[in-house]
Design goal:
- By secondary structure, this protein is of the alpha/beta class.
- The chain has a single domain, classed as P-loop containing nucleotide triphosphate hydrolases (Rossmann fold, 3-Layer(aba) Sandwich).
- It has nine helices and five strands; from the N terminus they run E-H-E-H-H-H-H-E-E-H-H-H-E-H.
- A five-stranded parallel β-sheet has the order 2-3-1-4-5, sandwiched between helices.
- Helix 2 crosses helix 5, helix 3 runs antiparallel to helix 5 and helix 4 crosses helix 5.
- The longest helix has 23 residues.
- The radius of gyration is 18 Å and the shape is globular.
């Protein structure tokens, strides 16, 4: 029996949980990776389809002086107003998902896709397995404050605006707890990657040192 062309894994979590770090480690280990956050950033560049969709939806209020999307302004708006967040999702998600599928179609082997709204959007059906990166809410807030320079109250608002991680945990096939160090997260990713690679084809794919 021949193996499938790819084993498609949906990676998700919450703001500040460490999804990007986990995705980077999967890539280092040899997995093919796709980031919807990166797709969204590319789509939102001036003149691109995402930029046009955001401008049509919110007007010039979310643009900077150069006409680019002001991510801080847009983020503050959509995290404070659930209706605006839904408008943003309706405007941009079809474009992002279309590009995701185009990129995936080019890839083979273990393919890990970072999908922030994996369960919220019902996208888990597109994947062979789902993986949640999780940590304590207090740790999420601490990381968002440090990473984005936001006041703690704003960081807590953004965490609270998303699905609770416990709700996502109940839906995920696997969970990577990331309350400790980056090295501890990498060790957990290595273990999951080895298991996924065995499930896919018998040996871990890629050229990275599995004992690193």
């Amino acid at each position: 029996m021949s193996r499938p062309r790819r084993l498609l894994v949906g990676l998700t979590g919450g703001i500040g949980t460490g999804k990007s770090s986990a995705l980077a480690e999967f890539e280092r280990l040899g997995a093919a990776t796709v980031s919807l956050d990166q797709i969204a950033r590319e789509q939102a560049k001036r003149g691109r389809e995402g930029w046009k969709a955001i401008k049509r939806t919110f007007g010039s209020a979310v643009l900077d002086e150069s006409g680019n999307i002001d991510r801080r302004k847009l983020g503050a708006r959509v995290f404070r107003r659930p209706a605006d967040r839904r408008r943003l999702e309706r405007a941009t998600h079809p474009l992002i998902l279309r590009e995701m599928k185009r990129l995936i179609a080019r890839l083979d082997g273990v393919v890990v896709v970072d999908v922030p709204l994996l369960f919220e959007g019902g996208h888990q059906k597109l994947f062979d397995a789902t993986l949640l990166v999780s940590c304590r809410p207090a740790e999420q807030v601490r990381r968002v404050v440090r990473r984005d320079g936001l006041p703690s109250a704003e960081a807590r608002r953004r965490v609270a605006a998303q699905w609770a991680l416990a709700r996502k945990r109940a839906l995920a096939d696997f969970t990577l707890d990331n309350d400790r160090s980056l090295s501890a997260l990498k060790a957990r990713v290595r273990a999951v990657h080895a298991g996924l690679s065995l499930l896919y084809g018998g040996t871990p794919n890629g050229n990275a040192d599995q004992n690193a």
